[in-house]
Amino acid sequence: MTEQVAVVGSGYMGGGIAQVIALSGRRVALADVSAEQASNSRERIIREAADFERRSLFPVGASERIAERVTAAASIEDAVTDADIVEEAVPEIPSVKHETLRRIAAAAPAAAVIGSNTSTISIAALAEAVHGPERFLGVHFSNPATFIPGVEVIPHEGTDPSAVARVTALLAECGKVGVEIPDVTGFVLNRLQYALFTEAARLVDEGVASPEAIDTIARTTFGFRLPFFGPFAIADIAGLDVYRFCYQSLGEAYPERFAEPASLREHVDRGELGVKSGRGFLATPPEQIAALTEYRDRAYTRMAQLLDELGPAPVRY
Q1: How far is the C-alpha of 247 from the C-alpha of 113, rounded, in Å?
Q2: Most CB contacts within 10 A, which of 72, 79, 153, 288?
């Protein structure tokens, strides 16, 4: 573990990323539009870490470790000059990102991997600003970066596979789950997230249900399952033939919104109905069904206990 990491952009996302990397044992140089801004952000993330310690969200001593390992750089160039890995986390404005990435690429060592925390902008388009684009890729943390484990790792067509491997290894050592996905608009996270929000907003616009009712249904039904199973595992457990029947009903009522996916149709036509047939989108041998059911029941019971312990979220409608 010898990497020196630079985080350029010290706002809420960049600060959280710096905390996570520092707690993995690495030294982090934090940069922003000015030395003063970087220094202020460094002090903020140390205070935040102390508060997280107090609430038992960070281990004891975390704030001291962050204070020891995170430095505020005088400039972007100073932050990246000795960096092995750089993460850009400036505002989601293409011109700002291009200018920042040009400065990073000009000042960082030629072997330094450069990542962008963009959530929507094409990685290939951002790579145009990077000298040595083979070392550039997307590294998209979710908000709050401190606590959300999944990170999208997004190479463009010219990214060297070794850059992907280095970033994925760093994320694993930070306790994160790096998932490599292609450079497509919206990547995976936001295509899923905005598809859900679009339908939720339509239900409100059509007068079907209130935001409160929709949020309640989402978090107490399918959302309740999502920490443990993704959409394909949920579908396999329910039965793909059931899903196909539901798509037929939905497609008749809302043909412009609910067309049966070709992959679902193909699985059902082959008799691959999910867990009950041993194969669907996933493979579930018969000898694993009992263990899967036991895990599901235990997971849902523990989730219900956790939610009861935490109580309702302090949101108002």
Answers
A1: 44
A2: 79
- pLDDT tens string 256-277: 999 999 999 999 999 999 999 9
Residues of the chain falling short of pLDDT 70: 1-2
The helix or strand, by DSSP H or E, that contains position 116, with its residue range, turns out to be: strand 113-116
136-159 per-residue burial string, b: 16 or more CB within 10 A, e: under 16? bbbbbbbeebbeeeebbbbbbeeb
The CA distance from 235 to 307, in Å, is 24
Q: Which amino acid type is present at position 268?
A: V
Q: How far apart are CA 265 and CA 186, in angstroms?
A: 25
Give 145-187 pLDDT, tens digit per residue: 999 999 999 999 999 999 999 999 999 999 999 999 999 999 9
d(CA 20, CA 13): 11
Long-range Cβ pairs for the range 260-268 (8 Å, 24+): 264/235, 264/240, 267/240, 268/240, 268/241, 268/244
Residues of the chain with CATH 1.10.1040.10: 221-310
Structure tokens at 12: 């809420």
- Which numeric CATH code is attached to 221-310? 1.10.1040.10
Which CATH fold would you assign to the domain 4-180? Rossmann fold (3.40.50)
Which pTM was predicted? 0.93
Cα–Cα distance for residue pair 7/31, rounded to 1 Å? 6
CA angle 22, 27, 31 (to 5 degrees): 90
- Phi and psi at residue 247, in whole multiples of 5°? -65, -35
